[in-house]
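Q: Could you fold this chain for me?
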Amino acid sequence: MLQKTRQLNVGQCLPKSCGVSGVRMLLAQERNQGASVNIVGVRQVPGEYSLLSDLKFHIVGNGCLMKVVEAKEVFVIQ
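A: Sure. Below is the predicted structure, expressed as structure tokens.
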């Protein structure tokens, strides 16, 4: 079986008293369960996230927009 590296975004609500170092320590404990974990980043909410700069938002938004335009063209042609 081939091992494949995958990125997993975990959205977890924790008490405000649990800081970035606490979250890193919590996730690092998964290594003891046999999983290989590489913590890339931890972000507080509200944080530096911007919906307009999110690549996934642009991809999904453009896909929806293309479907709406396509449906409108089909409706106008008929």
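A (continued): The chain has two domains: 12-47, 48-78.
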